[in-house]
Amino acid sequence: MAAATSSAPTNGDKPSSPVDLSTIPISPVGNENKKPNGEASGDEQITVFHDKDNFNVKHPLMHKWTLWFTKPPSGKGDNWNDLLKEVITFNSVEEFWGVYNNIAPTSELALKSDYHLFKEGVRPEWEDVQNKHGGKWSYQFKEKRAVPIDELWLHVMLAAIGETLEEEEDGELMGVVVNVRKGFYRIGAWTRTIGKSIPGGGDGDVAGGKGRSVEKGKEVLMNIGRKFKEVLKLPAAEVVEFSGHTDSAHSGSTRAKAKYTV
């Protein structure tokens, strides 16, 4: 199956054709009990690390994740929902690599493109019921030529699906995002809350921070911010900012004031 392709913008900030994500191969189907030559393999277990095409063992993830892609606007008043495309949902390490190895790297995307990797059932939008009370940690890389954006974005995705950006009981991380813009790359980590309980909400700490004190809620978010900063390999002097989605929406084109920093 042919890999998805993309071309980078060539003149100014005019976007080129967006990456084709209509067909993405994931883990092989029908190969569970066969050797590469088609013969039965009995109880032999083959992982993706032994044979990337004919493995029969999957390593499940704690959650299912969905990859989304935002196409660059055409300049004709495109609706956000028309630009945002759901690509594929996966729930194993092998499927993640199958997807990642067959889509365009971030460095080759057209300007105004985005990748979003979110837990299944959560749309990468402020208005989503699971996001509307939340916010995000984010950092802008302004020296685009000097930034290993593909490596950084990969490490952020792996930290998300590997559940290492938060503690197991936190239930805060909704997804991660990378934005490709003319003057910068931006990577963000979206959370369910802004450090306080969601009105009316959820069962226990895992949903909406119910029962958490404001101090505990802030501690959870700050811990995510510190881990996020580590994954981005930022020096101590650099600042990663957290802002609420509501504040960002109200600020319009201006940048929302940071609620927390690390």
From TrEMBL:
InterPro entries: TIF_eIF4e-like (IPR023398), TIF_eIF_4E (IPR001040), TIF_eIF_4E_CS (IPR019770)
One of the GO biological process terms: regulation of translation
Polar residues biased stretches: 1-14
Start and end residues of each stretch annotated as Disordered: 1-42
Keyword entries, A-Z: Initiation factor, Protein biosynthesis, RNA-binding, Translation regulation
Cellular component terms per the entry's GO annotation: eukaryotic translation initiation factor 4F complex
Coiled-coil region(s): none
PROSITE patterns: IF4E
Molecular function per GO: RNA 7-methylguanosine cap binding; translation initiation factor activity
Pfam families per record: IF4E (PF01652)
Key word Ribonucleoprotein present: no
Quaternary data: eIF4F is a multi-subunit complex, the composition of which varies with external and internal environmental conditions. It is composed of at least eIF4A, eIF4E and eIF4G. eIF4E is also known to interact with other partners.
PANTHER family to which the protein is assigned, alphabetical: EUKARYOTIC TRANSLATION INITIATION FACTOR 4E RELATED, EUKARYOTIC TRANSLATION INITIATION FACTOR 4E1-RELATED
Function: Recognizes and binds the 7-methylguanosine-containing mRNA cap during an early step in the initiation of protein synthesis and facilitates ribosome binding by inducing the unwinding of the mRNAs secondary structures.
Family named by the database record: Belongs to the eukaryotic initiation factor 4E family.
Name of protein: Eukaryotic translation initiation factor 4E-1
Organism: Lachnellula suecica
